[in-house]
Amino acid sequence: MRYEDAPVKNAGGGDLPALGIDIGGTKVAGGVVAPDGTILDTARRATPSRSVEATEDAIAAVVEELAERHGGPLVGVGVGAAGWFDRTGDTVLFSPHLAWRNQALRKELGDRLQRPMWVGNDADAAAWAEYRYGAARGSDLALVITLGTGIGGGIVLDGRLQRGAHGVAGEWGHMRVVPDGRLCACGNRGCWEQYASGTALGQTGREVALSSPAAAADLLDRVGGNPDLITGEVVATAAQAGDPLANELLCDVGAWLGQGIADLAAVLDPEVVVIGGGVSVLGEMVLTPARERLERALPGRGFRPGPRVLAAQLGAQAGLVGAANLVRRAVCEGEA
Amino acid sequence: MRYEDAPVKNAGGGDLPALGIDIGGTKVAGGVVAPDGTILDTARRATPSRSVEATEDAIAAVVEELAERHGGPLVGVGVGAAGWFDRTGDTVLFSPHLAWRNQALRKELGDRLQRPMWVGNDADAAAWAEYRYGAARGSDLALVITLGTGIGGGIVLDGRLQRGAHGVAGEWGHMRVVPDGRLCACGNRGCWEQYASGTALGQTGREVALSSPAAAADLLDRVGGNPDLITGEVVATAAQAGDPLANELLCDVGAWLGQGIADLAAVLDPEVVVIGGGVSVLGEMVLTPARERLERALPGRGFRPGPRVLAAQLGAQAGLVGAANLVRRAVCEGEA
């Protein structure tokens, strides 16, 4: 059953806004979101990443600020956070940037805020938003890949988020694509996100600047000559300004993206693959080389269609919009 | 909804046997299968692989032989074949061993045999059998990996085969695991099945016999000293007889299997992974090194459970048993 066709089990709250919160490594961003996905108001706080209590204080402050300005009733609060959640979505198992370890987040926040809650992975929330309101709308099988410092992802199949047997599906940034490859923060080597992400772009930029400083003159100029200061953003800015080397590095990241999409197509055979996250603001500079590689690498090409590769439509707000819709869904339709 | 809970929409045929057919590169194997999965009778023919008509003649001959011996009414005929089917399952897009190219197989066979048909991928049929009667029974998210000359696979999620947007999900044998790696029959390089399959076992055996003939003395003895004659079966037999080198090669295939399972766990987070196919008769000689690698390679290990890795229970009959149950399901419950 598709979301659009789902019977509304409890019509109460159907036309009220919900709060959506997106917790990143540096900030807690919140919004009041109407049923049609429109953001009516926003607020943000810095993320105090080292303490569980301080993180939850920041969430509560954003919720209280938005609720007070809104004044009227709200359906509930949806919270998407970078982290691995268990299958029920009640407990965050592990968060790379935050202090949460096996934290019963939904209960803790619900007790504190005294509001209905949805909590879950931020990439799942963003994927849901793209399915509900964005580039994946109407698709029976959509993968949403968020390209940022790493790679996140979400799977929407037949109108439902698919979170796997233990809640951690869609962590394809940690597929191994190069044996004995680059070291990843997860402890493994050769993970996909070490080759296709903002971090990868910076890493390759630094490597090239060290090995071929003349070719990397434009990049080095942008960081006062210190190759250690070359980040993904520096390379991206240089590419947008027309630096041929930076553009080549971006094509390389795009090709790795396309190769990984080919691998995911071998496993899941999606209808659409939506590319979101910070790196996706580069648009066709990344998507064109990704599609070119996918076309050459798709297993069975010529005998089968491949997925359509589309740019995300909701930008940086996807996480909070998706989280708001997911709490609405939980409250109004009884969907977990 | 789980299969066991599904309402029977049309009780007619519920207690009748169905025919299951499994078409491989060398033989067409058929069986009369009772509702509880018991095989009541079997028949087989050689597969005439180069002609569409001759292949369909062989299928018809097996069906007629079994139907005649059975004598009574049958629910229908399920056919699993090595090949890629479209989403509806009506059309075979491409078959590696057979002459089918965009062939409307379900209609053609149905017209010829005048019986209700299910047609689909052989690994999907085998996966369904393991879910319905075997090692994956009761699992909400099971991946079945068939290790033979290549790697096939099927996904059973919430009691349904998941075939992807275009019908070709589960083709994970063609995930790229080594950039610029071994050439695959699919035209790409570095596919998983080039490292974890019977073919991979033979290939590695031949490579070692050429580079280190002294270490490979046992293997070479088995093939009259000609390294070109070392196949996966030769290595497997030597390993079972206690040859340490052959055992090491088997451990290597097992480790590649475990690595690929870790990659699939990053994408899909399955509850169980069932290993079937010809190579799986080696049992723990392959499964133990696979589990060991999985334990070390699972992304997020320590913070999340991994999948249980189990041996298939239905052996070489899984394909025909699954195909028979799938046509039963299509006829009696209206499931596609």
Please explain how this structure is put together.
- The structure is a homodimer.
- By secondary structure, chain A is an alpha/beta fold.
- Chain A folds into two domains: about 5-130 and about 315-335, 2-Layer Sandwich (Nucleotidyltransferase, domain 5), CATH 3.30.420; about 140-310, 2-Layer Sandwich (Nucleotidyltransferase, domain 5), CATH 3.30.420.
- Helices cover about 35% and strands about 20% of the residues of chain A.
- The first copy, chain A, has nine helices and 13 strands.
- In chain A, the strands form three sheets. In chain A, strands 3-2-1-4-8 form a five-stranded mixed beta sheet, sandwiched between helices.
- In chain A, a hairpin with a 6-residue loop joins β5 and β6 (about 90-95).
- The first copy, chain A, is globular.
- At the A-B interface, α7 of A face α7 of B.
Q: Give the full name of the CATH homologous superfamily of the largest domain in chain A.
A: ATPase, nucleotide binding domain
Helix content of chain A: 25-40%
Greatest interface and its participating residue counts? A-B, 46 and 46 residues
Tell me the CATH architecture of the largest domain in chain A: 2-Layer Sandwich
Instruction: Write the element-wise H/E pattern of chain A from the N-terminal end onward.
Output: EEEHEEEEHEHEEEHHHHEHEH
> Biggest sheet of chain A, strands in spatial order?
3-2-1-4-8
Total DSSP helices of chain A: 9
Q: Characterize the largest beta sheet of chain A: strand count, sense, and whether it forms a barrel.
A: 5 strands, mixed
Q: How many domains of chain A?
A: 2
Q: What gyration radius of chain A follows from the Cα positions, in whole Å?
A: 20 Å
Give me the secondary-structure category of chain A: alpha/beta
Low-confidence stretches of chain A: 1-11
Give the beta-strand count of chain A.
13
